[in-house]
C-alpha cells in the first residue's frame, strides 16, 4: 500500500530520475552514488524509491540507533561539554579486543 501523503512528490535535495531512466542507466547511477555519496530519488507513478550506498545506509542505521538510546545521546552531550583537560587519546583506551 502506498502512503498517499508521499506518493507523487519529488524530493528536491537529491538527484531525481524516472524509473525508465533508472532501468536504462542503472550501472551509471550506481557508479554516481558510490562516487559522490549522493542519493537518487527514483520517481514512479506508484511512489518514489530512494537509492543510496551501503555506507550511507549503515551510517543512517547507526545514527538512528544512537538517537533511540537516551544514554548514548546523553554521553554525546556530556562529551561535547567536556573540557579539553579531561580529553583522553583514543590510543590510550583499552578497547577490549
Give structural notes.
This protein has four helices and three strands. With 97 residues, it is α+β, with helices and mostly antiparallel strands. Among the domains are: 15-52, 3-Layer(aba) Sandwich (YefM-like fold), CATH 3.40.1620; 55-83. It has a three-stranded mixed sheet. Residues 1-7 have low confidence and may be disordered.
Strand content: 5-15%
Helix-strand pattern, N to C? EHHEEHH
Strand order of the largest sheet: 1-2-3
- The CATH architecture name of the domain at 15-52 reads 3-Layer(aba) Sandwich
Briefly note the CATH topology name of the domain at 15-52. Answer: YefM-like fold
Alpha plus pi helix count: 4
Structural class: alpha+beta
List keywords for this structure.
97 residues; YefM-like fold; 3 strands
Offer a quick outline of the entry.
The chain is α+β, with helices and mostly antiparallel strands.
Write the topology of this structure.
Layout: E1 15-18, H1 19-24, H2 26-36, E2 40-43, E3 48-51, H3 54-68, H4 70-80
Parallel strand pairs: 1-2
Antiparallel strand pairs: 2-3
Amino acid at each position: 500500500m502506498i502512503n498517499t501523503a508521499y506518493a507523487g512528490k519529488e524530493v528536491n535535495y537529491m538527484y531525481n530520475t524516472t524509473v525508465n531512466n533508472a532501468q536504462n542507466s542503472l550501472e551509471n547511477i550506481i557508479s554516481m552514488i558510490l562516487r559522490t555519496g549522493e542519493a537518487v530519488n527514483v520517481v514512479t507513478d506508484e511512489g518514489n524509491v530512494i537509492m543510496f550506498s551501503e555506507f550511507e545506509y549503515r551510517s543512517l542505521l547507526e545514527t538512528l540507533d544512537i538517537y533511540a538510546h537516551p544514554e548514548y545521546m546523553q554521553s554525546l552531550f556530556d562529551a561535547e561539554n567536556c573540557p579539553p583537560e579531561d580529553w583522553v587519546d583514543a590510543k590510550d583506551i583499552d578497547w577490549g579486543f
